[in-house]
């Protein structure tokens, strides 16, 4: 199923044209409105005016992994607070004390929800589905999932963060789609097992597991084994403020399409920082971010291209996440 087939099945030529137009605009916006990029572009001697092809992006400086973390978030903000719609505080990975601040405009949120709608439809979500989300609206990534699920027409219940209440809430309304982090999914399974059942006893059609950092292979296996339902693994990296743009279409696997109309990808050798034709570190550049653009951000994710056309019919590039 597709949420927007004209984009999800876009031709390579049309995608390149769209990317170049958006990249030129994004680089101009970041260079003019964001103090960090204005300074880093000037130091590197590059300008958006020089970008006439996509490969020219390689001339711009890399933003190191963690380059957004630990710095003043306002250095990456492009507009006054009065122009924003959402300010989010998210934990980075598994470190509860490592908080990342993300800013978003109304346009940013609309783009996130659009991409999340495509991802959820790719996971099989439909207008008759009942979705349970382990968490609440304090997490911007979950808000995007909530809005996208409702846009599809699914009924949604936010189960909150108080795990003691989860069994009672699930008794009242039992979802067929469950969404949460590996930690929360495991906690729910433990609580249900203490009451004599477990996730395997719920009538789940699918589980969507949100990873805020690179999971281990053992963690992926443990999540896949929680229930007989289809399990889709989705990257929800804090520095993007959303679980978009990673679209999973293969259950149980760490393979995703990158929604390239909104995000450009490069693969570089982590040692030399030069482009790699094979596996390497994933570098992301936003193409339509308003409040907080990311330009050549080193994600720390080791990936390899997934060769050949995808059986799901989507034409955006696929990547396989490499884990230990």
Supply database-style keywords.
324 residues; alpha/beta; Rossmann fold; six-stranded antiparallel β-sheet; five-stranded parallel β-sheet; 13 strands; globular
- The rounded distance between the terminal residues' Cα atoms is 32 Å
User: What is the second-level CATH architecture?
Assistant: 3-Layer(aba) Sandwich
Task: Provide the domain count.
Answer: 1
Widest sheet, order of strands: 8-9-13-12-11-10
What class, by secondary structure content? alpha/beta
Number of helices: 8
| Number of beta strands | 13
What overall form do the CA principal axes indicate?
Answer: globular
Low-confidence stretches: none
Helix and strand succession?
Answer: HHHEEHEHEHEHEHEEEEEEE
Sheet of most strands: 6 strands, antiparallel
- Please tell me how large the radius of gyration is: 20 Å
CATH topology: Rossmann fold
CATH superfamily: ANL, N-terminal domain
Query: What portion of the residues fall into strands of 2 or more residues?
Result: 15-25%
